Amino acid sequence: MALSGDSGGADTAMQTVLVIGGAGYVGSHCCKQFALAGWRVVTFDNLSTGWRDLVKWGDFIEGDILDLPTLKAAIRATTPDVVAHFVGLTDVAGSMADPASYYRTNVVGSMNVADAMRAGGRDKIVFSSTAATYGAPQVELLTEEHRQEPISPYGSTKLIAERMLLHYETAYGLRSVALRYFNAAGADRDGDTGERHHPETHLIPLAARGLLRDDYVFTIFGEDFDTRDGTAVRDYVHVSDLARAHVAAADYLVAGGISQAINLGSGTGSTVMEIANAIEAVAGRRLQRRIGPRRAGDPAVLVASNQKAKRLLGWSPRPLGLSEIIRTAWRWHSVTDHGWVGPKTPEILQPRLVT
Ligand code: UFG
User: Helix and strand tally (H, E) in the chain?
Assistant: First the structure.
């Protein structure tokens, strides 16, 4: 199996993490945090939604999790101490329209990852799960014990994968940490990587788009929720903080920890309106906006209790919180234009100054 990259081969004293989906938004931030923590990093990605230019830390293997032989070969070639599995389709509304793709990638794909690990004698995995596994809860702060009743195929597929991993621990000794992300947001503090989805569906990049382009009007999806200003409440957590939690979860597994599901959130909620106002303030210009209907599958409020992450992983997000999320996201989208979304042509990788 050919590896491409700049690591110059493995240092036998280093631990290796195989980052499946390391060319994507959260995955690329994780590669950086693992590299900073002294791990050898190898990214496995099919580049369908990931970006080759965001694979900056360690080696790269191009491959698809639905192609089991390639996946097994990658695991044999890299013998990872820990696998970090980020691959997944993640758009709630998209999953309502096309559940088959979500079951294929998120369920079958995750099973392939676990089976390839078994075949290669690997037994530790950090898995990207989601707050969407909880459904539409009515409590203020969600703990991991809250009933999981997903209301979208996306949430269901991630829950199935979580449960599959628990069964694989009982039967085969494969230990996992399922990290239930709330809203990953912001960009690397040094500007090395950031959010670039195509098509983009997320709040902050789309609000930034509304500020940067005359031809795009930002839409608030619903102002009739039972919340303080009528718009939906989410728990935004800086993506680099989220990434640090993966390193802590890997360390936890290496130290012998048993399988866990852990929320990753800040513990504080912001409304869509508050986010729109905050990015407007940082940009120093007016955001053209309109009110649209609610988006299918969107619950009113999702805010994490992060006590378990603190207790088990010693993790908490850095205190600057929302202001740093907005500042780093705005910088990524506006100053270098790296967050521009469109066809995968080389010219989009050229930095362009937006004044
Ligand atoms: N929103 C808008 N306008 C937009 C985009 C989003 O009003 O143009 C609203 C959404 O309706 C939602 C909030 O902004 O209320 C956040 O939306 P995002 O699309 O940024 O994020 P989601 O909360 O829908 O999704 C995130 C992750 C999913 C995960 C989900 C858990 O991206 O992977 O949290 O609910 F499943």
Answer: 11, 15
